[in-house]
Amino acid sequence: MSFSLRRFSALCRKESYQIVRDPSSILIAFVLPVLLLFIYGYGINLDANRMRLGIVQQDGGAEASRFVQTLQASPYIDASLSTSESTMRQQLKNGSVRGVVILRSDFSAKVRQGQGAAAIQLLTDGAEPNTANFVASYVQGIWQLWMQQRQQDQGLVASPALNLQPRYWFNPSTVSRNYLVPGSISVIMTIIGALLTSLVVAREWERGTMEALLSTPVTRSELLLSKIIPYYLLGMAAMAMCVLVATLIMGVPLQGSLWVLFVVTSLFLGSALGLGLLLSTTTRNQFVAAQFALTAAFLPAIMLSGFVFEIRSMPLPVQLVTYLIPARYFVSALQTLFQAGEIWPVLLINLLFLLLSAVFWLGLTAWQTPRRLDGN
Amino acid sequence: MSSQTASMAIRLQGLSHDFAGRPALQHLTADIRRGIITGLVGPDGAGKTTLMRLMAGLLKPVSGSILVEGLDPVSAGDALRLQLGYMPQKFGLYEDLSVMENLVLYADLRGVTGQARHDSFERLLAFTDLARFTDRLAGKLSGGMKQKLGLACTLLGSPRILLLDEPCVGVDPISRRELWRMVSSLADAGMAVVWSTSYLDEAELCNQVLLMHEGKLSYAGSPQTLMDSMQGRSLLIQGIDGNRRHVLQRALRCPQVMDGALQGHAVRLVLRTAGALPDLASLQAGPDASLQAVKPRLEDAFIDLLGGGPGGDSPLTEHMPPARLPDGVDADAVIVAEQLTRRFGDFIATDHVDFRIRRGEIFGLLGPNGAGKSTTFKMMCGLLPVSSGQARVMGLDLKKSASQARQQIGYMAQKFALYSNLSVAQNLEFFSGIYGLSGSRQKQAIAEMVRVFALTPFLDMNAGELPLGFKQRLALSCALMHQPPLLFLDEPTSGVDPVSRREFWCHINGLVDKGVTVMVTTHFMDEAEYCDRIGLVYRGRMIATGTPDELKAHIASSAMPDPSMEDAFIALVEGHDLAGEHA
């Protein structure tokens, strides 16, 4: 039987009634993305801003005070001052400070003595090596600053032989949010795309409506398209939400054009919706399909897409696996579009793979979509 | 074309089907005629749904052929779907769409448009009496209304063949009769109707039946012919003085008796051959007892086809010790509900219900789905907190000591709450364990149950793969392992074949003899006949209580001198509705 627009639009209308009346699909499409975006955008932060640092100042001399002032003035440090070493050690144990700088009572005197006799003790919490490294390098940086200032004050303007002036392209302020938000949008869209559709075919099986549908003259393509188009539109609406929140509320710049973003997202939704539909069609059980969708879509999207973890530092076999993950191309395309704009060599490769992936997942779903109860 | 072939709507020829090697249908050959209702009759698992799906072109047969309106359902599916209406179980409705939206959807799918659509909607809404409810969501309709909407959606596009898969499951008897009338009128107008059911009383009304058992066709033809062949073999012992269960047991020991069951105060027997009567005196039924020939039922014939009933002696009776009551418990009030009420928000599921059950009594809660049977039942088991009023078992207040009370109860749920991926032996071990049996007592209890219920050949099989009758045996043995004095049964035999059902009630009768008290919920009229007393539950209220005979006598009239349990049910519910309107 040939494709009938009447049957197709009847099915689409039915699907949209169900979407509007089912609070969970609205929740998945509109509330979940914003929630996740805030968690990823503000919760995950690779910049170690404002480390809590304890300072034990046992010396009231001018040199020590200068050093403490330099520490307190640093934008990276949230310093709390005390004269008691044991209090600060206790705070380090509690985890209320990340490190302790101790200036002994003879600090100023030894500095004046010169010959590097002055000692600054730094204690950090090695249980969190990453943070401990941050603390150590921040304090070292501040120490260098203090040294420079001291030399300037003494009139010894030492011009260094080399002057390093780094410039960060594409993300000049090196705000990691600008890099993380596009990546997290792709993770969010993976979850949403797969979750939305993982339920819809299984629901028809569970409620016995699929049997009734299959006994009417509907065709396979009408059935499949009526499951894709409404959820594609819903997915696009979710994407629009994400982009609005990212640019307007979170202040992430969008360098590329909207129509490229639209094409990239459309192709990606092809894969994500296809995966969800495939799971829904093959398991015929809402619970199992949703579980699978979360595991099969979410985990690879977060671990293997290059969103947080650099793909090139993975072992080779794992790197090869990442080529199968559509989110990988979406992450790359989104990060490029948001931070750098239309860099076509990068975008075209990603678009090509997204297209292949969409064709693969939707094709597989079409092949698995039955016209009878026992398969094809 | 002869008139014979012209009246044939569906021809099945050597039809077989299996699922992954497990046979579902074996060599079925039958014809289904136009203009009548053909009943597809058999217990759950007999292959009814598989056959329905094969005829609807939803499955491809493994071997054999089907012709529906001269078309092969698989290769000519597109053409056939325009002529065939198929209503699956659960009616195939979208619960989150309104009545009208469901109709519009199916009209679009079946190509009913323009004036034809307008006319069909008008006709079907009038036919199903749903015109007042077009804006209501399908999920908010009652079971009977859903069933009618399902039928209306199936009838769009004026199909020539109508396939209805268990249309009356979960639907109250009033709606069942209404649907029957509607479908009869369609058949009279020339439609070929196939109606599948596991209720044999429903099947008696069909013009033709295909009686199925374990994937095989046991009988094809008129149910009347089949019942006529049993003429003179069905008897009723009336005027029994004494214990009717003992009379039944003695009767079933007679070599002349093939099958027997309780029917109210009387005992109904089926003989092996007409005329060869059992000796009434040996049954010790009392001086006034008399044997009287009665109209055979389809069930009698089905049991005959299956090779006779299971006999009347339950090996369980030797195993179970007499159920003793703790001191201070009134033997007339082993299970008590007083003004028992359960609210869910504004909705009152159980509304001031009262009953008390004696030791050794079978008490049935009878009512349509959604009437509040299960809620009441769950409160009595201590599975659901009581909103107000009292629930006591064995003198224990379920509000205060629910877990102690549960130790006194054996519970067997609808659909047999077994672990389907554990073996039979593992299920027995698990259930005996949770009831606190261990060590040699546990081993002994399991061994006894395996012996009593003849489970030895199945011990290593997964419970999910057991035939339905054996699943039922296993579920009962799991409920009885700790030898409880009370037994709670939730629709225990719906969908099982009549022989397994007989066997089940034989065990229950044996337990009652030992002083076990039984509470049953059911919407199944046959099951109600086994009860000593019945409480009729409707819209949360207990609208009538009494013995089955009392309830029937209550509504007997000159027009209906010998009403069935179903007649009584319908009359009482309708009377209640009427009283409500006047109040």
Describe the structure using short key phrases.
heterodimer; A: 376 residues; alpha/beta; abc type-2 transporter like fold; 2 domains; 14 helices; 66% helix; 6% strand; elongated; B: 583 residues; Rossmann fold; Alpha-Beta Plaits; 4 domains; six-stranded mixed beta sheet; 21 helices; 25% strand; globular
Give a quick precis of the structure.
Chain A is an alpha/beta fold and 376 residues long. Helices cover 66% and strands 6% of the residues of chain A. Chain B is built from 21 helices and 23 strands.
Question: Which helices and strands appear, and what pairs or packs with what?
Answer:
The complex is a heterodimer of chains A (376) and B (583).
Chain A: H1 5-21, H2 23-43, E1 51-57, H3 62-73, E2 77-82, H4 85-94, E3 99-103, H5 107-113, E4 120-124, H6 129-153, H7 176-206, H8 209-214, H9 220-249, H10 258-283, H11 286-303, H12 316-322, H13 326-340, H14 344-368
Parallel strand pairs in A: 1-2, 1-3
Antiparallel strand pairs in A: 3-4
Helix pairs in contact in A: 1-9, 2-7, 2-9, 3-6, 7-9, 7-10, 7-11, 7-13, 9-10, 10-11, 10-13, 10-14, 13-14
Chain B: H1 3-6, E1 8-19, E2 22-33, E3 37-41, H2 48-55, E4 63-68, H3 77-81, E5 84-87, H4 99-109, H5 114-128, H6 143-155, E6 161-164, H7 173-188, E7 192-197, H8 200-203, E8 208-213, E9 216-221, H9 223-228, E10 234-238, H10 244-253, E11 257-263, E12 266-271, E13 290-293, H11 298-305, H12 316-319, E14 335-344, E15 347-357, E16 362-366, H13 373-380, E17 388-393, E18 396-397, H14 402-407, E19 409-412, H15 424-434, H16 439-452, H17 468-480, E20 486-490, H18 498-513, E21 517-522, H19 525-529, E22 533-538, E23 541-546, H20 548-555, H21 565-582
Parallel strand pairs in B: 3-7, 3-8, 5-6, 6-7, 16-21, 16-22, 19-20, 20-21
Antiparallel strand pairs in B: 1-2, 1-4, 8-9, 10-12, 10-13, 11-12, 14-15, 14-17, 17-18, 22-23
Helix pairs in contact in B: 4-6, 5-6, 6-7, 15-16, 15-17, 20-21
